[in-house]
Each structure stands twice: as structure tokens, then as C-alpha cells.
Amino acid sequence: ANREVLPDFSGTGELSDGYRVPLLSNVGSGEDAQLAAAAGAEGVGLLRTEFCFLGKEKEPTHEEQVAAYGAVFAAFAGKKVVVRTLDAGADKPLPFLTDASEPNPALGVRGYRTDMTSPGVLERQLKAIAQATSEHEADVWVMAPMISTPAEAQDFAQMARGAGLATAGTMIEVPSAAVLAGQILQRCDFVSIGTNDLTQYTMAADRQLGTLAELNDPWQPAVLHMVAATTAGAQSADGKPVGVCGEAAADPALAVVLVGLGVTTLSMNKRALAPVSAVLRTVDFAKAQRLAQLALDAPSAELARSAVRAELSELD
Ligand code: PEP
Ligand code: MG
User: Fold this and answer.
1) Active-site residues: which are they?
2) I want to staple 106 with a disulfide (CB 3.0 to 4.6 A). Which of 39, 90, 239, 300 is the partner?
3) Do 172 and 192 contact (CB within 8 A), yes or no?
4) Is the pLDDT of residue 88 over 50?
5) Residue 4 exposed, middle or buried by CB count within 10 Å (0-12, 13-18, 19+)
6) Shortest-distance Cα residue to atom 6 of ligand 1
7) pLDDT (tens digit, 9 = 90+) per residue, 258-291?
8) Residues with CB under 6 A from ligand 1
9) Range in 88-102, 223-237, 251-265 with the lowest mean pLDDT
10) Judging by beta carbons within 10 Å of its beta carbon (0-12, 13-18, 19+), is residue 30 exposed, middle or buried?
11) How close is the Cα of 248 to the center of ligand 2, in Å?
């Protein structure tokens, strides 16, 4: 087993004034879930269910899926686990579901869109998630990747509820979804911002191209404005939850900015829990809001990052 020693994390995320920001973990297998729970994660903010599908020649059976999801739920009894339905395509090709010959796979049939070309796979996955939920104590939420319109959010929520899953949401990783987050949240229960793809699509810069790394930076003020549009939409929809589950949440200074923008939970690699919680504890909510405004007003990613870091002395 993996015996890596992780830095100490108290098990709750909060600011200096007691404002709570649950710190969750991104997880990609049952074993990973046990390690995240041991590291003190308050729950799972992103279960990447691709682990059950990738490398397979055909769709895993109902029983295989129930066992795979159940292993994760067992590690988080009584805690929240946000399950993302299959996100195949683009950087995660899957031979029996996605078409590798598409000219622009990142703009193609990926994520939720594969339900158009391979109907049934998503519905069967939702049934397996519901079955595993009924066998464990975890508080299971389910969300779809690559949602682009309020209608898609409505269709997905209906499908999830039809499978017996009570809490259904969507990822926000396409600019069209960020702009219409309020309308999306009128049709489902929560959203979670995937900053990796939201950055790629806002900046029109392939996340897999190292040469475009400067554009592919979640500190880009345009990306932060997309986050602000999402939290503003949530405010207009009864203040429903807005998480972040992309890599941005694992950068301590950027985590402060995200909280200041109104994000309610952060989900990250287990290794980031301790450093992120340590920096969150040094600011109150008013300061987080002030730093968020500094970043929104900056003309570049570099200046946004340096302006915020200069106000967080414990970082260097
Ligand atoms: C994201 O896009 O930010 C995300 C969390 O999903 P993935 O990295 O798996 O595409
Ligand atoms: Mg994504």
C-alpha cells in the first residue's frame, strides 16, 4: 500500500473569522478514497468515475460499477461524495464510446454529450450509482461533466432523479454554462466549477499543449470573471452551492480568491489539503473578498497572482 506521509490537516477548512469552507478531495479509485479520508478530507468533491471505464474494451457491468463506487462510499460513511458521471472524450478517450477521428476532440462529443451518440450508458451508470448509494451511508451527490446549456442541466437532473438519486448538479467547465449558471441552478441542486476545462475553453487554449501554458492559467482574470459569473448566478438561485474541483483549488493563494468570489467548497488532491487550509486560516472573509477584487481587476494572470501573493505574507 501507499504509505506516503501527508502534512497534517486538522480536518476542517475555515477562515480566521470562523467562516467555513469545507475542504474535499478529488478521488480516482477506492484506494485513493481511503488515502483521502485518512488525510482528513471532509468528503469527496469529485469522484472521477473514468477509473472504472478507462482501459476497458466494453462497458463495465452493473455489478462491477456498483462495487467500484461502493468502495469509495465506504471510505466516506456519513460524508458527502460528489460523483461525476463518465467524462470520456478529448483528453480521456474511450474506444467504445468516443470517436478519436474527430477533428477537434475537445470541442466534440465528450462528457455528457456522449449520451447523444451512445444512449443507455449514462442511465445504466446512474442506476449503478443509485444501487451503491443504497448500500452505503455516504451522502451521495451526482453531477454531469461538460454541460453547456440549462436544457442539458434539466435533462440530466431529471435522469438522475429518475434513477433514484436525490441531489443532482452539473459541472461548470464551459463558458456558456458559467454565463447562464443562474438558469442552470434553477433546474438542478448545485454546480461544481472545473477550472481545468473552464480555463481551456475561456482562453481557447488546449490544456494538453505545454506551449500554451501561460494562457492555460486559472489566474487569468477572464477565468476569474467566469467564476464570479457563476457565483452571481448561484446568488440569484437561492444561494445554491458552488464548488470548485479543478486544480485551481489546490493553489493556496488562488483558493483564497475563489472563496472571496463566493465559492462554497473546494475540492483538491489530498496533498493540497494541509497547505490550502493553513493559508485560509490567515484571512477573514472580508480580506478574501478584497483579494478576489484585486485579482479580478488585474490585467494579466501574472499580475493577479503577484498582487494577491504580496498580501499573503506567509506564502514566502
Ligand atoms: C476540470 O476540468 O477542471 C475537472 C475537474 O475535470 P477534469 O480535469 O477531469 O477534466
Ligand atoms: Mg473537466
Assistant:
1) 245
2) 90
3) yes
4) yes
5) exposed
6) 194
7) 999 999 999 999 999 999 999 999 999 999 999 9
8) 46, 48, 87, 173, 194-197, 245-246
9) 88-102
10) middle
11) 12
Please report the atom of ligand 1 found closest to the CA of residue 197: 2
Closest CA to 140 of 68, 245, 37, 47: 47
pLDDT band of 225, cuts 50, 70, 90? very high
Beta carbons of 291 and 58 less than 8 angstroms apart: no
**Closest-approaching ligand to the CA atom of 196:** 1
pLDDT digits (tens, 9 = 90+) for 9-53: 877 899 999 999 999 999 999 999 999 999 999 999 999 999 999
Question: Does pTM top 0.90 for this prediction?
Answer: yes
